[in-house]
Structures are given as structure tokens and as C-alpha cells.
## 1
Amino acid sequence: MAAPGYSEHDKSEDVKVLHSMGYAQELERRMSQFSNFAVSFSIICILSGGINSLAQATSGAGGAAIGIGWPLGCFVSLVFAVAMAQISSAYPTAGGLYHWGSILGNRFTGWLTAWFNLLGLVTVLGAINVGTYYFFMGSFGTPYFGLEDTTTTRIIFLAIITGAQALVNHMGIGLTAKLTDFSGYLIFATAIALSIVCLAAAPSYDIARLLTFANYSGEIGGNVWPQNSTMWVFLLGLLLPIYTITGYDASAHTSEETLKAAHSVPRAMVSSVLWSAAFGYIMLCSFVLMLPNMEDAAKQGWNVFFWAMNERVNPVVKDILYLAILLAQWLCGLATVTSVSRMIFAFSRDGGLPGSKALSKVSPTYRTPVAAIWTGSILAVLFVWFSSLVSIGDTPVYTIVVACTVIFLFFSFTIPIALGLFAWGTSKWNVMGPWNLGEGVFKLFAVLSIIAMILIFVIGVQPPNDWALYITVGFLVVTAIVWFGFEARRFQGPPIGDEVAKRAAEIAAAERAVGETGGAH
């Protein structure tokens, strides 16, 4: 059945682009532009990162960390989104970044992009669900059920919610898209409701508070950040928006399931960042205005959100909001499983991972990469389990991982963007997609992305996340060993040139196997 406004011609155009890149239409195209937007908007989820990472601002540079820091950090994310949108319009495939890295560079840069994006996605899935766990414990787990935060409780909780997210993904993109569409509306509605509740509970509207720099590093800020200068604390606080506004690459990862992908994906990617930035700003500013006073809020450290809600908000209203936030956080993880699995599927399709044959298999019944979905989900839980058993000094491994996640993800965004800067107009990239900024604008955003990546790396490896530097360097060393030791000889990369034509029979067979027909069905 064709979607409204999606003609036979549109469908054949989408499939033609995919065939021209040497791939079969194995996944099912059912996502509208809104659904493609909603999957990124759900992963960004201002109700997840925005709330769970609040202390990075309130126990850092105070009100200014939100009032000034949030728009600044969101702009950093937007720079990457705009540059990636330009590339995604020209190359709308699942696991987008990996292909862009290969096409605009070579098989090594594609492989490197895929590795870092995958590491980032698996760790971010773990981090999002850990955030959901702590939110659950603070809202209902401890107050109502008397649960204690132990590694066992955490891993059981994670296994249950991640398993449920994987199951929904397993059942087909139709169900996942319905839920992420709902999640898009839920995030808008809950963010507005939370903002109204905060503003209604605010003692006064002290707008100056949002522009006032403070320094709550060290003891007075519940040791969220070690003692530091005001400028550094402000820069460290940028990790709140930068960590929250990430995951918009999901729009690219679901390209092969999106109608009119070359048009829809870039728009969805940029709009998911803009809407998240705007609604997140209103919500977080309202929260800061509600705080009884900034000093007491800073002292609460990581518990600032629950403390403020307990102090100022009616218990029934508070619990209703908590339920909505919890559901939005679960849906955020659901969308992340979609993103991780499509990346694993796309990379395996070209033999990029151990067990690639199984990981790239698409279920004829559900039209989803089942093995990739469960593998990504299990890896995320195992990763959290392992990082829960290890503590480095006084720093919880979780915060180090969040810093690494941001570095890994943005590094995987930067590689294809930087390659695009040099490939523009050459034989590697001489045909632009329908969403085209023009050379000057793209190159400006590409240069800004590279500068932003340096900034993120520098901020990301400061104490208390100084271990992130060693972990990142360690991964680079391991990556070099794996590439030169094994993959350089074995890994072929995506099909290019004559290779695409040779695949025609394989493509037709793969499409028959999952029941894909040439016309709309």
C-alpha cells in the first residue's frame, strides 16, 4: 500500500538511488518525513539528557550555564547537523555516516567512521538507559518501592527495558515509527507542561538569574565538577546541551525506511535540532527560575531536579510529570536501538563486523535486521554492566563514558564532514542532493564543525573526565591495530563503480527474499 502523497514514481526514485549505490531495498519504506524527524527528536529527547545532566549546569556556572550556555552548545550541535544534512541528501542510505566516510574518502575512512559511530551509539544507548534507571529510582523506585541502587538492580532494570526496546524494534518499523511519532508529541507536550508547572511554582521571575555567572565547582556544587575557574566551569557546562542534542544521525540511519529520503532526511535532521534547542531552552530556563535559590540548588549536585520538584511542586502533579518523562526516556532508548541496529546492519552488509552474514540478515516477516537489533541491545547492557563494576578513582565510570560517547559520536560526524570539505565538486562528490546549501555555506559549516570537534575534545577530557583522554587514545590504538592487522587486507568497503553493476542479480534476489516488489505495495 502506498502512503498518501507517495507515488509509484517517488518509490521508484527512492529505490533507484539505493540501487545506484549497490544495495537492495530490503528494509521496508514506511516512515514519513515526520516519522524520520521524530526518531531523531526522540533520541535527542530533551526530557532525557536535558534533565539527567542538569547538574552539569546548576552545579557549574549556575544560571548562565543555561541562559547563555544552552543556546551556545545547541549551536555547536546545529553546525554538525547542517553539514551532515547536505551529505545525507546526496547519499540517503542506512548507516549513513559509514557510507559518507567511504564514498567521500576511502574504505579506511569509512571503516573508521563506522567504528567510532558504533562505539558511540552502543555506549549512548547504555548511557540513555542508565539515565532512565536513575530517573526511575529518584521518581518512583526509592520513594515508592524502597529500592536500593545496587549493580544488580541496575542491570536487571536495564536488561528489562532494553529487551522491551529491542522487541518493539524486532516487530517492524511500522510499530517503531508509530511509537516514535507518539514520542515526538509526548516530548513537546511534557516539555510545555513542565515549563508551565515550573513557572507557576516560581517564587519570582528573576530573569537576571539566567545571565548571572557563578562558580559552584568543588564542595559547594556537590562535587559535580572539581574546583575550577569560572570560565572552565562554564565551558564544562556546555557538555549538557552538546550531550543532549546528539543522535540526529538517526534520521540518516533510517534513510532506507523513509519516503522521499533525499528530501525528508536532511530536513528532519536540522529541524530535530532546532525544535529540541527551542523547547529545551524554554523548559530549562523555567526550571532555573523555579529554583528557591541558586546556592541551595548547586549543593544538591546530581539530585537537583528531584530536590527542586519536591520543594516547589504539588505531589500529584509532580508524579504525573514524572510518569510522562519516564515514558519519554524509554522511547528515547527505543529510537536509539533503531539507530544502533541500522548502523550494525549497514556496516555488516559490506562485511565490516565479525558475524556480518548473520548481522546483515533482514527478517522477511518483519522486514527488520533482527540479529543487529538484539546484538546492539545486548552489547549496550553488557557495556553498562562492565562499567558498573569498574570505578576509576572517585569518578563514576558513567560520567567518563558520557564524555567518551560525545567524543566518539562527534568524531564519527566530523570525519565525513571534513572529507566532504575536500571532495566537493571532485569526481567523489559531483552530484548534490535536492537539499543543497551551495558550496560556500556547506564549506563554512564544515570548517565550523572541525573547530567545534576540537572544542568538544578539549572540554570532554577535562577533570573529572580526564580518563576519557586515555580511553579515547586507547581506542585509537586498538583501532589502528585492528585495521592494519586484519581489516586493511580483508575489508572491501561499500560497492563502488563496476562493483555496483555486478551486484544487480544479488540485489534482485535479496529483494525477492523479503517480498519487496518494484512498485508500491
## 2
Amino acid sequence: MSPDFCLDWEALQSNLRSNQGIDVFPLSHFETGDGKWSLVSDASGDHAWRLENVGDAGSGCGLQGCAEIDGATYFPASFENLIAIKNRIQEFESESSVFPTAEGSLGKSTLGIGARFTTLHWPGVDWTMANLGIGLTANQNSIPRELVFDVDVMLANELDKVPFPFIGTSVPEGHQGQSVEGMSHGCVLSKLKTGFHSHKIAWSFNADHQPIGGKFDSREDALVAGCLFASYITFDLSPELAETQIPEAEAEQRSYVDVEIDPDLVAKVSERVAAAGITLDETERDALLCYVWPAMKKMKARDGKYRRAREAAFTTEVGRAYLRELSIDELPGLTKPETTGIMLALCEVLGMPVQFVAPAFGFQKNMPYPSNGELKDLIVRQWKVCEAFGVSIGFHSGSGKSAENYQVMGEVTGGNLEIKTSGRYTYEMGLALSESKREADQALWRDWYAFTLELAVVGAFSLEETERTMAREFIVNALELEGAATQVFDSLETCRSALEALVPNPGHMFWFEYNFLFVLAREGRPRKETLGDHSAAGYQQRERFYSISDEGRLRFCQKVASYIIFLARNTGLAKERECDAAQEKLSAYTDYSEFLEGIANPNL
């Protein structure tokens, strides 16, 4: 949770001097002009950067808090030192892959690997990148929905709430139980420890669904500061668009455009839209501009803040660069190509060209699109616009689609796409725990499943219509999956008995929909008031996942890697031969330590 990975520098220095409980990570080594660096930590989890200097110890490296111990120089793993070490690395070697960047093909073709509830999937992601030789959006989270963007606000118990109508309540922001700064820090250290960085494969960190406008106006500076290390920003305009009022009369729309928008900008946008093959008369154009202009102005302001923050903190162009995505998939209905076109034109003319745009295709989470023919038609219409602007398509809610769905996405776009996946990896954790032979893993799985069952049963009899309707839909789906009777809503007891008669299965929809709420639920209790608990009790619950066995970790990482291989194969981002070889190697692991060794050494 903390931005720092060293909370007690004095104690860590003492442990280093006495060599008590010190872990040295031999695969973490890298070089800068200062000398050879590596990571160490103690039994409390405090980390330090170790420098074996070739000149004057630590001179000019810019890190704070140095300690000379046994001929080496150590620096605490503070967030400030993370900034300094990034600069030293990228000044020395711009192709370094220690930190997330916007390099390689990441701005054209990528897979977004979300972390909805823990970071235990990271080794699986890194193994796949190393063994397929492709870069991915290896870290992706919705901020602030999933990650806390200001730890001080959390500590003051002042986090805002996120409404979840399908559970009939609101949950505090950051329901994953991590801060964006802490995740930024942790993903870098993780890749160093496994030696992934030695492959020099570019990877990115997506600060997903960055909310623009609405209630987030007053908090955007904190969002900008928290997302400093993100090399990829998704601008979610839905908060502002939800508040935008469009004048009804055409004359009022025309007047708004004349008064609020520079005529030269309007002319350039019109020309660019026409050049992209989109036909819009002035009336249609003005209506669209009235709708999107307030949000686009705020996006421009936020983008400027992201750029200036990176210019102030980082010293290299590669360190300052970031990718942009325009997210319009959370607006009502299906996105019209005309809307996509005018918003891409505005981004271009305003000097903030995007690499990805995410239209709404009507996807449901973890469900295949029912008709490949219809899906192809929808994508073709959007791709004609995107291709004209040199922009790739971002497919949100991308988990759980069919192989044929992914093939259509890859074929139509020529691989110029991103597929965002997140909830799938929570499902894979449930599957891994349910298959583990370790009793502690099984106990966690049983508690996790029972938690979701109880939320579903109570929700099915809620007075809130949305909560009741959704819960019953999830329950019926699970019963149908098992071939059981679905007429179970005579009473709460009847419903509970019917579900308890089922063998716990991660494929049950109620488990899939409610599972993310378990990770920070106080004492694991399925009560609305216990959800998203950022107190010690909530984090004790979260710690249960980080205490799973090596068997559980191996099974989970194998499933994560296998799913990414499946995506890469069907979208065409990796060749069949490479996918076959990686899958065969992946399936052969029986030991977690051997799997981890396969990250730095894919040939093992």
C-alpha cells in the first residue's frame, strides 16, 4: 500500500551490517554509469538498492539516504529514490526494460493484463512475455476504482465511494487494497527479482479509466501525482459526459459552437473528419461538438498535467513518454463511427493524439459475443475510422470471449488492437485454489465461494430492484450450468439450499461476479458494511491470498500464462509455433521455483 518499499531504514541498515535475515536477489543486477546495482531486502520486507561503485561511492547518483556497508553503498527503496534510479537507468541505457515505457509495438498491438485483486499474477505475465518474446501492458488497473491514488486520504478514512448497483451498495475506492504508487514501485521490483528485465522487452503500465471531469475536477492533481510512473493513460470521459447538457434547438447548438470553440479549430476538425471518410453535415457536427467539447477541454487540461509531471520528474525522453487511450466504451449504447471520428479529430487537432480508442461494442464481461458476423460488422465500421487516424482499437471488457471472437478482432484490425482483461485472472485464481491439494488453499477457496454464495442469496431477495434482478440472473445461470432446477426463489432458505447443494465451481456466475469483493472484506464476512475495508482487519483478509502455497501459486501462474498465450495466438500477436512451444513448456512445470527460473532463462 505504501509508496515506499522501505519503511524502517534504520532497522534495515542494522540488519545489513549484521547480515541478519538479508535476502540478496542475484538476478536483479543492472548497470548505470555509477556502477553495478542490485536489490536486497530484510525479513520485514524493507528493500534497498545496493551499488557496487566503480568510482567514488554513490557520487552524483541522485539517490538519498546512502549507507556505506562492507564496501558497498545502500540506498532505501523510497518512492523518491525510485524516481532517481529510473533517471539513472534510462540516462545510461534508453533501451532498458526495468521500468514501464511506451516503446516497441506497445502503442499499436498489446494485451492489457489487469490486476483486479492481487499482484500474484505478475510472474505468469512476465513468464509469458519472456517466452513469447512480446511486450504487453503488463500492469493495468482502473484508478481510483481499484487502486487508492492518495494513501494519506485513505489513512484519514476519507476515501470516496464507488457505487455498485448490482450489490446494492457503494464500496470505498481502491477496493483492490493497493495504492497506485505502491503498485508502480512493486511491479518494477518484481521484474528485477525474477530477472525479466534482462530480456529488454518493453512493457507498459496502464493507469486505466482515469476519470475526467465531474466530481474528479477537485482531485485531479492527486490523480496525476499518483500515476507518475504509468506509461499509458486511459482517459475516461464518462464522468463529464454524464453531466453535459446538449442544447435542444439547432440554433442554440450553432451558437454554442460559435461562442465556445475557436472557429479555426472547428474548421480543422471538420476537414480531418471529412478526410477520414466520415460524412457529417453542420447540424450533426454541431450536435456532436456540443456533447463532447466540455469533456475534451478537460481531457486537454489533464493531459497537460500528466506531461508536465513527467517533465519535472524524469530526465529522458523515453522516461517522459506515455501512450494515450480515449475511452468512450462506458457511454450508453453502441458507439457510432461519427462519434469516434470527431473525438479522434479533436484529440489530434488539440495536440494530444491517442494510440488507442475504446468504442462500445456491447460486450458483457466474461461472456462471448454471440454472433461473429455481427461483431465483424461492428468492428469493420469502427476500424475504417481508426485506420484513417492511425489509431488502434481498444477492446474493453475483453475477458472471456470466444477464440472466434478474438480471431475476428485480430483479422479486422490487422493486429492493431488492445484487448483488456482483468476479471479473468480472478477466475483463474479460484480455479487454481479449487484444484490445489494443499488444505490451506482449499480452505481459502471454500470460504471465498461461501462468501459469494451468501451475497447472491441475500441479494436475490433485496428490496433494491437492480440488486435483486442481477443476483437472480447470476443464480439462475449457475443452476442452469449444473442442470439443476431454477425455480428456487420461493424463499431465501429454498434459494440457499439449492445453491449449497452444488459443488463449488469457479464457473458459477455468482462467484465470478462477486469474487473481487472478498479480498478486502473485513474478516471475510459477506456483509455490505464489511466490504472494501481499508483498516488492519481488511488487510489481514487480503494477506490470506499472499499466503497461499507454492502449489497454488504455480497453478495460478500457469493458468494466467496459458490464457495470455490463448489471446496472443487467436489475435495473431504471436505465431502458432511460438505459442505451441510456450504452452508445452508451461504445462510441464511441477515446481514453482523452476517456473520462476524460466522467466530469466526461457531456454531452461
## 3
Amino acid sequence: MKNNDSINSSGLPDRSLSKTCFRLVFSLLLVTFGFQQTEASPIDSDTEIADVQEREVTGVVKDNTGMPLPGANVLVKGTTVGTQTDFDGKFSLMVPAGSNIIEISFISFETKQIDVTGKDNIEVQLAPSAARLDDVVIVGSRGKPRTSFDSPVPVDNLQTGELEQTGKGVLDQQLMHKVPSYTSTQQPISDAAAHFSPADLRGLFPSRTLVLVNGKRKNASALVYSYVTPGRGEVGVDMKAVPSAALERVEILRDGAAAQYGSDAVAGVINLVLKEESDPFINTSYSVTTEGDGEQYKLSTGFGVDINDKGYANFTFNYFDQKRSQRAGTITSLDDEAGYWGITDSTPYNTSDLRAFLNRNPSAGFQVGLPDMTITNFAYNTGYTLDEETKTEIYSFGSLANRSGSAPQFARVPYWVSGFEQIYPGTDFFLAEMAPQIQDYTFSLGLKTTYNEWDFDLSSTLGRNRIDYYINNSFNQSFGASSPSDFYNGAHQFSHIVNNLDVVRTFEDTGLNSLTVAFGAEHRTENFVTEEGEFASYGDGTPDDPTDRTGSESFGGFRPENASNDYRSNLGIYTDITADITEDFLLGGALRYENYSDFGSNVSWKLNSRYKTLDDKLSIRGSLSSGFRAPALHQVYYTAITTTLTENGIQQNGILNNADPALRALGIPELDAETSFNIGAGVTYRFTKNIGLTMDVYQIDVDDRIVLSGQVTPTGEPTNPIDQTLASVNVGAAGFFLNAIDTRTKGIDIVLSYSNLEIGEGSLGGSIAANFNKTEVMGTNFPDFIRQNNLEDALFSREDVSRVESWRPRSKIIGTANYEINKFSTNLSLMHYGKVTYRHPSNPADDATYGSKLLTDLSFGYEITDKINVTVGANNLFNVYPDTFAEAYSANGGIPNDRNLDFVGRFKYPWQTTQFGLDGTRIFTNLNFKF
């Protein structure tokens, strides 16, 4: 018979968690043969008479589908006499004389009281609990199942339905609108990063959040965020690769967990839990901005099947299509534009030419906004029980994503790049577009079994992300009329193979309430590949002319010398012990050893505790942990040439790989691991069954944090190592990765949750959640060569400091309310984004603060039938945008002194510090079918 267990948002059991619960609880009860019982203390001399009169009551406890519930608590009301059900949901209990009421409870089910007067055998069926506060989470603990209120560390638990309520089409944007501590903003004009939206958790950039799928490590993307936007130099997981329609829930562990899960889990862990079963469904959605652009269409479909009552299989297909939007500004001053480019009345392209061009093209051909994007996803999750007695199960899950798109880059005008009329006749400008082809897949195969009361999980996971870079509508000036317009610029690919062995057992005969012992090993092999592009994407068509520009405009192709194929491996061994010393007091710890083939070893540890009081309403919890993050292979071997805006104007910049011997001449050491220290403390309080509050403070110190430096420029002395290094790679400036800074992040998370509150004839649910954080750069770690040549500001300027400290909102508050009455529902969300501050690399007069904003989402739903429902709504109902450059620099006449910041008006809104995107109001509709 197929096992079922915890409750999802539709009231159906979630078997992935249930099977974990079954194994843990059954192994405990085997120790005590199912008859463990806490006896009432003697109260008088009549105890012997009472013992004679007590009687045995047996029974079975099942869920709403008729499946047995192992581990359900059975208590004689008003006494301390109790027991738990065994693997088959059965129990046997000695009921004292004079007691007739038995209370039966289980996580995620409603507690039930049964009168056993005159009965010696009963059958009890528990109904699912509508209170979301009792939902179980599995991330962060390998022991007995716990709710987010019982967990010793803070964990968010988001059901698929909550994500869909946001009206957003991809997972990273759905999380952005539900979780205050998670930020993922669409960045305009940022090369391939425009297709990925770098994310951070608890104020730390994407490299420091570990992403799991069904508890197994998800591969990182192949992209290094090399543009000068938040997340510069970082590597993260492609959160658009897994469709939310395939998920049962998303668990977000907001605590350092490197000792439990390995590298990258400095800020926390995101666990994507796939569905095990679902009724056949088709979900469609469409949205468009009130400007009439940025259309998004999504189609999701899927179904689940039983396999001979011993297994399950669930399949999901998802299609998402997005059209670009336009939020560019206009050139604010003819004189400033002419001065920026050095145009005068006497230059070949003179002031009159410029005036005529701007009359025809007020934005100088610029486009700022969402890119075109098409995503096709497939995901599956399956398992089959081979032997019920040993609970041996084979399982597999995976996802496949293909993504294409096109993001406009900086428009090339004739007074910047000349000669393009040879391949674009009759045009005023050309708009190069970054059009990558992105593939991402995950495949996992594993076997679970139980032997001698120990649970074993052996698995192997393959993951790969590949980006083929194409630049369309571009031009290689050195090729002139023979230049292609479209280029293949090469590829990046990252893949890993992860082998895991996890062993766990929970003891209940140790004198403690329970003791869970877990240990295991992980072996991981990683591979990062750079493939060269076609010759026209990087080559010089006129090598005898040193004045022309070479390579495809906006993004030069990877040269043969950039090509690489690099591997590394690591082995991790861990142990994780959790002691429920009493039902109220928990103490846990973890220790992990990791050894990397390229930089050495690391040991990390963690301690956490939780104490419940006030009749289990109040919990006090805390954690201490050390952690680490291994440098990504990308950060060691990445090289590229890009065109960016700097305070010195538009510049071609090179990024040198950290393994390049030339960097040793500059005193730049090989990359080492970041190390971290986390302190967390919090309280949870349950006012009622349906209302609860969690508050958690944290401090995260990261030492030797890896950053992508600013650009080092020539000194003008040919014999200087700097000039020689730059000349060797043929760029005007170059950056590189190094362990440059130490940071401290402090914050507080507050979540007030409420569900199933009866208001009139309907019910109300939702939450008020907030994150407040502050990151400070505590110190820098520059080599002697850098200090001796006064290159500190070039490597890590005021701007770089502010990118870490203040380019993301330091506060984010989300309040949601969902009211359901009969067939109608309405959902209201209020999102407050704190201010952000930009600091100029060298001129404090060009610093700017962009004010806080409040956004409102509102939607209405109606169940046409039991199988069909429709939702219409609006994101950002009141059409709120970030402050404009004109508002931020109002004291300076509405423009910055450094016109690179707004590119002489082409950018109307800040592109470095975007808080929540540039869509404005978006109207959406969802139509969902079940079969």
C-alpha cells in the first residue's frame, strides 16, 4: 500500500515527508516494541487498587484517506499517561481508573478527543489541520519531523499556491514577492545577468545560499555576474530552471548550515520539494503592463500516477514567454551629449548632425527594461517501494530547462562606433542584443532502506548548466562591410556529479525523550568549461590598423586563449546529532570536514538549541556555527572582455582568471575559501492554534570574502608589471578575483502568521513578515604590491563598498491577507522596500539615495466549478516606480556630475541599485483547470 503523510495546501498528504516520519518513528518504536508508556506518579496509598482497576485500550489511528499514522501521540486526558502509534498506526494503552477521555494528536492534523467508556478497542480518523502553523519542514534537521515553530532555527515554508498568488511567472520573482529576506531584482542592460536576476538571502549575495532539490544539491549556473550591478563577481543557482508548478513547497532555512550541508550555506539553504502526486491540471496565466508591453504568458500542466500501490510518479511541463518592455529616458542635454562624446562644430560628426540625430531619436536608440525570454521546463519525481518490510525504496527525480531570449545592450550610435552603415544601411544606430541559449538539467537516482533500525539513503545527482552566448544585431568594426551582424561568442558550462550517503537513526531508550544520530559522506566532482567563439566575435579584421575596434560590439567573443576545461573534486564527511533531552528542551550539533583537491580542507561546526515553555506556546531558540564557502570554479578560471560604463567613460575591460601567472607578478594570491561565523537567536510564540509569531536576530561575519575587483589601469610605464599584464591581454583595464574583504551582516526577521480565522461567513489567512539587515565592510585584505602602488581604491572603491553595503534595500516588509468566502477569494499584498544608496567611486557629490517605496498587489478569485477557477489581479496597483535620477539629484539640477551614471539621460531610473524592477502596474489573469 502506498504511504501518505503530511498535509499540503490542498489537504492531500505529502508522502515525501511522511515516509521520513514513518522510518524515524517506526525505528524508535521498534526499540520499545510499541509499548512505551509514561506512568502516572503515585498519589496516595490507593495506588494498588487503582492499578487493579485500570484497563487496556487498543486501537488504530488513520488519516483522512484511511492510511495509518505512525508516531501519533495518544494521551489520557488529565494525566501523564501516554504512548505513540507504531508503524501500522496501532497503539496499546493502560487507561487509569476514573479516566475515560483519550486525546490523539499528530503534526498537521486536528487533535481529537475520544470517550472510551465501555470500549477496549477503537479506530480513530484524524482530519487535516487547516492551520498552516503546523506544516512540517524537513530542511535543517535530520531527526524527527518539526514545524517551523518547533524548529531550533528559522525556516520559511511556502506552498505552491502561495507562490502562484503573487501573479509572477518564474520562481525567483515569486520568492521575491513572498519572502522579505530574499531579493531577486530584474537588472536591465547587464549582459547575460539580465536573463538570471542575481538573488541574495539575508543581505548576502547569491554565492552564499545553497539550493537543494528534494534535499540534494542543485548545480550552480555557468554564469559569473560580471557586470557592475548587485551580485557582481558572484555565482548562483539558476532559480528559473525549476518551475513552481512542479513544487509541493519551498523551504527556506534562514541560518548558517555549512556544517550540515557543505559549502555555500553561509546565509542559509533553499530546499525545493517536488510534488509526489497531483491530480491532472492545466494552469494558464497572462499579464501585461499598463504601458502595453512586457507581456507574459505561462502554461503549466502535469499529473501524478500510482504505481501498483507501491509507488508514485509525478510529471510537470511548463512554458513561459516574456516580451520586452521599454523604460528608457531621453537625452537631457544636447551640450552634455556633445561634451560626453567630444563633438564640436568642427568635428566630422558635428553638433548639427547630433541635433538632427536626437530629434529623430530622443533616447539615442536606447532600450531599458525586461528582456525577451522563453523558458520550457520539464520536471518529474518518482519512487517505488521494493520491499515494505525493510522499507526499501528506489527513487529518482529531475528537471530539464531550455531558455532563450534577447536583452538589448547599449545602442551604438554613429559618433561612438563608425562604419556600421556598411552592414546596416539607412539606419541611425544599431542595438546589439545579448541572446544566450541556456540549458539546465538535474537528474538524481537513489535508494533508501532500513537495516537494524538505521535508515540509509544512497544517491547520485548529476547537474549541468550551459550558456551559449550569441550577440545579435552587432558589428565588428575591424571587419567593415564583411562583418557579420550576428555572432557566436562561445560558451560557458558548469556541471557536477554529487554522490551522497546519509545514515540516520532515532533512539528512544537512552534516557532522553529521543536522540537522533546522523552521519554521512558526500563526494562531488565539478567541471567548468569555457569554449571559444567564432573568429569574427573576437578577431581583428584589419590587424595593420591599430585604431579600429575589434570584436563584436557589447560583448567580445571568447578567444582561444580563454578556452579552458577545469575540474576539481571534494570529499565531505559529517555527523549531526540532535537530542530531545525532554519534550521541551532540544540540543543539537553538527560537525563537517571537507577536503578540496584545489585549495585544501576545512572543518565547520554548528550548535543549536530550543526550549519550549508556557504550555508549548513559547519557544526560545538559538544557534552558533562556523561556515565556509569554497571559491567557485568559475571565479578561479573565468576570463572575459566586456564593455561597461566607468567613471572614466565607456571602456573595454578584461577579467583575468585567478590561475593566470600574470597575477602572481602583481602579488595576487590564489583564491582561498571564505570563512564565516553565524550567531542566531529567536523566539516563537503561538497565540492560538491559528496565530503565531517568530522573531530571529542574526549576525554573520564573513572573512576573506571573494570579490571581483575594480579595473586596474596602465601606469604609463611600459616596464611596470601592471602595464605588461594589461598589454599581454590587450585590454585597457583589467579586474580579477581575490579574497579582498571582511564583512559583517546584522539583521532581524519577524514573521506574524495567521490562518483559518473565521471572519463573517469566510476565513482569513496571511502573514506580516519583515527583514531588516545591515552589511558593513569591516576591513580589506590587499597584497603588498597593491598597497605599495596605491591601487586599493581601483580594486575596491567607494562604489564597490556601497554595492555590498547599500545597493539592496536594508529593509523589506511584506503583509498579505487572503480572504475566502464560498466560491470567492481575494488576496491583498503590501510590500515596502527600504531606501538604497549609491556611492560614487571618487566623488561624494555624486552619491545618491533612492527613497523607500510601498507597492500594492490585489487580486480576486472565483471558483467557476470544483474543477475550474479564475483569478484576475494587479501587481503594483498604484504604478509605483523607483526614484528617478532627476529626483535623486534634484539638488544638482536633476543630473549627476558624472554623466556615466545616467548615460546623459538614457537611464531614467537607476540601473545600479534597482529595488524592485521597472514594470510599473501589471495586470494579470490566471485560469486553472483540474481533472
